[in-house]
Amino acid sequence: MQSLISKIVIGLIKNRHLFKLKLKPEVVDENFSVENFRNEIDKASAKVKLPKSITTQMVSADGINAEWIIPQNPVADKVLLYIHGGGFISGSCLTHRMHVAKFAQGCNLRSLVFDYRLAPEHPFPAAPNDCVKVYNWLLSQGYEPNNIIVGGESAGATLTLSLLLALKDSHLPMPKAAFSISPVTDLRCGADSFTYNAKNDVAPMGSWTTWTNFYIANNDPTNPILSPQFGNFKGLPPLYICVGTHEIHYDDCVSIARVAEKDGVKVTLRIWDKMIHAFPLLSPLFPEAKKALDEICEFVRHYA
């Protein structure tokens, strides 16, 4: 049964437009300002302080801005490579350092988050190319593939899968395991859950079409690196996929788990009743989010 506190928190998020004195939720269309959206998120993120037990270090990962998020006494020689979400148009080390800190503490791993290039200025294949570049940088720093776990949420969850497929295409060594929280796996966004969960989820109406189109640009959306659902997963490492039944990405998550399992990948598909998009990042605000985050960290610790 869904907890009362989750109903309250999710209800507040769904009605966040009221805090801006707007009667109707935002609709993302041709008038949407990417710049204003990024600025709002950056301002809010700048106010968040990390736990005192976390230390940080800014680095250049082969020219890409990145940040180490380091818990106390992390496991030696192992690393979590975290790929942030943000609809392919937003997100950065700044916006996600507080989220990555939760995984760093829960997994007890040095964790790296980085600023991959964003659409619409840099459409596909800029983001997955940057993911491959940072992964190769980790290898150049002496990290063994068997000691690397990759994961991310939302757009970062999609890019996690894209990274694995890109590594396979380039005959590069795979990480030990990967987790993917609420990925969109067919960027045509035509799955039924985009319709029946449109009002259940927290994504702004129309964002899935507008934002993904910025990212796709003039490319074929069935390219497996864009839409992992069309990829061949044979030889990929164990996957943990997390999704809520109230997500617009619900059908995509179920479909990608089926595709990966058919190709022989060890898949854990965790479905959470009445949960919203990328809800584990809301931990510890309500029990379901905390438990989901704990389960993902347990998966990581098992393979780390």
Nearest-integer average pLDDT:
96
* Total domain count: 1
Supply the helix-strand structural class. alpha/beta
Q: What's the number of extended β-strand segments?
A: 8
According to CATH, the fold-level topology is Rossmann fold
CATH architecture: 3-Layer(aba) Sandwich
Q: Order of helices and strands, N to C?
A: HHEEEHEHEHEHHEHEH
β-sheet strand percentage: 15-25%
CATH C-level class: Alpha Beta
The parts where pLDDT drops under 50 for at least 5 residues are none
How much helical structure, as a percent, in the residues?
Answer: 25-40%
- CATH superfamily descriptor: Alpha/Beta hydrolase fold, catalytic domain
Query: How many helix segments?
Result: 9
**Radius of gyration (Å):** 18 Å
- What is the global morphology? globular
Largest sheet, order of strands side by side? 1-2-4-3-5-6-7-8
Largest sheet: 8 strands, mixed
Distance between the termini: 32 Å
Please, could you describe this protein's structure?
With 304 residues, the chain is α/β, with parallel strands linked by helices. It has one domain (4-303): 3-Layer(aba) Sandwich (Rossmann fold). The protein is built from nine helices and eight strands. It has helices at residues 4-14, 34-46, 93-107, 126-140, 155-169, 193-196, 207-216, 250-262, 287-303; strands at 55-61, 64-70, 79-83, 110-114, 148-153, 177-181, 239-244, 267-272. An eight-stranded mixed β-sheet has the order 1-2-4-3-5-6-7-8, with helices on both faces. A hairpin with a 2-residue loop joins strand 1 (55-61) and strand 2. Helix 4 packs across helix 5. The longest helix is centred in the last third of the chain and has 17 residues, at 287-303. It is globular and about 55 Å long. The two termini are 32 Å apart.
